[in-house]
Every structure is written in structure tokens, then in C-alpha cells.
Amino acid sequence: MLPPSVQSALQSTHTTTFVSDLPQEIQNHKDQPVIIGVDEAGRGPCLGALVYGISYCLKSFEQDLKKNYVFDDSKKLTDAVRKSLFSQIWDISNSEVSKLSLELSQNVGYATTAIQATDISSGMLKFPPTENYNLNEQSHDATINLIHALVNKGLNIDHIYIDTVGPPHTYQKKLETIFPRIKFTVAKKADSLFVIVSVASVVAKVTRDLVLEQMISKIYHPQSMAETQDTDHKTEPVNCGSGYPSDPNTVRWLKSNQTPLFGWPKEITRFSWSTCQTLFKNPQTAIIIDWEEDFIVNGTNNNKKAAQLFMLNNKQEKLVTLDNWYF
Known about the structure:
This protein has helices at 4-9, 24-28, 62-68, 79-90, 99-107, 117-124, 135-151, 168-178, 190-193, 195-220, 222-227, 248-257, 274-280, 302-314, and strands at residues 16-19, 34-41, 50-58, 109-115, 157-163, 183-187. With 327 residues, the chain is of the alpha/beta class. Strands 1-4-3-2-5-6 form a six-stranded mixed β-sheet. The longest helix has 26 residues, at 195-220. Pfam families: RNase_HII.
């Protein structure tokens, strides 16, 4: 069975948010202070979603988290350990569940926002470029919306710890302006400093990895996806690597799966990444298109490009644009 955060993200190729039910201990003690951690997974890859995870528990449970569990920066944990930890939060259907696992699910709540590759690309490639919705802005908005979701649940929020995006001080001031009654700590490496952020890191990482894995399976193994959503179901794996541009397997996958016109599946590809842009500009692997918008620019090249258009018309050479393609 897939985690609910993954099932939610797979419902759309656009950004989705999942918010878990309040854990039992918080329902029983809603007047007690709650701490919250926020972290992301998948900021750098050119494939897959950027997932923001938020986790929370009673402040009184913080020491139990540190003492009884191995939460840490998700990059320091193995995939198996990450999945095991997350399953103890969301999956209590197993009759063999241990006392510690039950304790975790009863005390820790979470939420995720999966910013899909489709929205990352369309935001960063808006025209004109001055309208770009960059990744930092998308990240800030995802975090703010997740915090609003928990505020709306009526939690007695004592402190929120966040792994920074951009300069910590500036980001913290922004959040304090929006939520003046909440204390914030925004820091680099917060997932190693604060255990509740470590939990959020694990939630985000497991969700992102499973969403990418399931999307690739859906694209390349649609029959097997129709039969089951079991993460243990075996199909021949598609080796696209980690999704990071520095991963040779990812670069190899991009080169071997590129189609000349559309490139790669839009559901998983961040076309705004320079790795993809470079491959798209290679005439040996892609169809080079001169967009009409490229001739409509502000700046010193405006007159030159306008002249090029008039020269084509004067020579009675029809300029093929989208509006006259079928005529």
C-alpha cells in the first residue's frame, strides 16, 4: 500500500497537498503547545516533484522523538530506514505493529505539498521572463500554505522550525510578518539540528521518491500500474538515476529517451532546468524552433529582429508562425 501523501500526489500532474488527520494525542490535548518542522526533498533534480513535508507533535513528545527513534537528515538514512520510519507514522494497519510504532502514529501528524514538474516548468518559463515564478517563490508559498493548513486545524502552535530557502534571516522575517503570533527558527541544516525537522525531511523524501517511481511506472508500465499499486509489485525498472543533473544515469536516461519535438514526459520533467535546455538546443537531438515571441522583445535587439521579419516579408518568403500554420 502506498502512503496517503503519495496517493494524493498521483491524482494530478499539478501541485497537490495532503494533510493527515490530527494524531490521537494532539486531539486529546489540543490546549498543549505543538512544535512543527518543515523541510523539502527534490529541490535540485531535473526529474520529479519538489515535495515539501511538514511534521508536528506535542512539545512534550520532542524528547521521546530524539531518544526512541533514528530520525535525521533524510540524506543520511538509507531508503529502507526512511520508509520504515514514515510507515510507522501513517500505517497502523499492521497487526504486528510495535508499541513504539503505535506511539509514533498516535503522536506525530504530517502534511505534504508536491509541486509537480509541470508546475515548476510552467512557473519558471513564463513569458515574458519578468513574470517568472521562480523556485524560491514556489517553495515559500508551499510552506506558507502548509502552515495555514495547520493553523486552520486549531493547533496551539508554539514554535516552527524550518530548513531555509535562501538567506535564513530574510525568510524568517517574511514568515514572522505573515504569522506574527508564532515563533520561528529558520536555519541552514535544520534537518540535522531539530528532530521535528528531521521527521519532515523523511516524510518529504519518501513521498517524493515514491511519487517519481510510481509516475515512471505509470508512463512506461501502464499495464502493471492498472493491475496494482503495490510498491512490492515487480516490473522491469526504468533506470533514470536519482534525477539529479550530476547523476550519469539521469543524463544517460535523458539522452536515450529524448524525442526531437516534445523531449520527455511532461509529468516528470523540469524543462526549465539547464540540463534539459541544453539538450533541446542541440540540432542533432532536437527540432530547433524559432518562436514568434523571440522577435517581440524589449531592448537593443528589438529593431534588428523586427527588420528580419520585414526582410522576409519583402522577399515574399512566408514566415511560418502558429497562426498561419494550417493555411
